[in-house]
Inverse folding.
């Protein structure tokens, strides 16, 4: 009888142990599942901080933002001149550049040429327009290779420069096309390096904002880069003097809506700078 009782107790203990082990495994599995699910949710939330949802577009921003009825291409040149050579450099440009501008054999126009007054010192800035886009640019380049006067100009110019760079630009559809104007004026070139992927957003805001900056005819031209530094925007403004610039810019803040444009466009900018420029004698923009 004692043996039978002992067998029953041992069996009960075995079943209890088995049940406890099963329950323990269930708890471990449940906890493991819960931990895994929680980790997956955390990973998903963490990744969502760095993944930007991009709306698909059916066209390049260059086609969405430009004047489709025109095919103007612009080239902007920045020449850093040896300080002791700036006057000779300006004289050389005055002798050569206007003749290219006036010659119908070349499908290009000199929009403006300046020296930087405030900003990078001893710098010359030239802005060219090519009516006909890239084919016109290629045609001008090929023809200038055969121009002995221009070849001599480039050789002499090279002795005066420390560095140079350029960009190919398109103009925003909502900006004025730069046209010659009488002076005297000073010009401000404001350049914005935008965050990649924000050009359309910038254009949408400035299509409205440009209306706030037309009252004193200060808006000259607005461009964005195609080759060179990408996602670069240039706004060109004209003022009678520095005080006129200050008054005009302060006046924009008195117009309802300007503050909103600034609020929403500032986060799109990675870097920006401003040049105050004086037109040279050869510049159609005076």
């Amino acid at each position: 009888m004692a043996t039978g009782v002992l067998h029953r107790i041992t069996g009960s203990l075995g079943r209890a142990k088995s049940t406890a082990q099963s329950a323990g495994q269930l708890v471990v599995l449940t906890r493991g599942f819960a931990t895994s699910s929680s980790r997956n949710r955390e990973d998903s939330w963490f990744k969502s901080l760095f993944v930007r949802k991009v709306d698909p577009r059916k066209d390049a921003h260059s086609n969405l933002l430009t004047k489709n009825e025109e095919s103007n291409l612009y080239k902007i040149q920045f020449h850093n001149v040896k300080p002791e050579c700036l006057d000779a450099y300006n004289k050389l440009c005055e002798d050569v550049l206007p003749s290219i501008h006036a010659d119908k054999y070349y499908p290009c126009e000199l929009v403006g040429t300046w020296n930087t007054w405030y900003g990078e010192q001893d710098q010359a800035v030239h802005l060219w327009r090519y009516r006909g886009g890239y084919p016109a640019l290629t045609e001008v380049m090929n023809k200038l290779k055969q121009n002995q006067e221009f070849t001599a100009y480039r050789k002499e110019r090279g002795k005066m420069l420390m560095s140079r760079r350029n960009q190919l630009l398109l103009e925003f559809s909502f900006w004025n096309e730069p046209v010659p104007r009488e002076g005297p004026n000073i010009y401000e070139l404001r350049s914005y390096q935008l965050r990649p992927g924000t050009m359309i957003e910038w254009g949408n805001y400035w299509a409205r904002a440009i209306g706030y900056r037309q009252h004193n005819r200060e808006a000259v031209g607005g461009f964005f880069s195609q080759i060179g530094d990408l996602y670069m925007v240039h706004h060109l403004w004209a003022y009678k003097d520095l005080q006129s610039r200050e008054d005009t810019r302060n006046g924009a803040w008195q117009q309802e809506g300007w503050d909103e444009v600034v609020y929403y466009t500032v986060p799109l900018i990675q870097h920006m700078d401003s040049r105050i420029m004086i037109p040279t004698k050869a510049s159609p923009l005076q």
In short: Residues 1-56 have pLDDT under 50 and may be disordered. The radius of gyration is 33 Å. The helical segments are 2-48, 61-65, 86-102, 134-145, 148-158, 199-209, 242-252, 258-265.
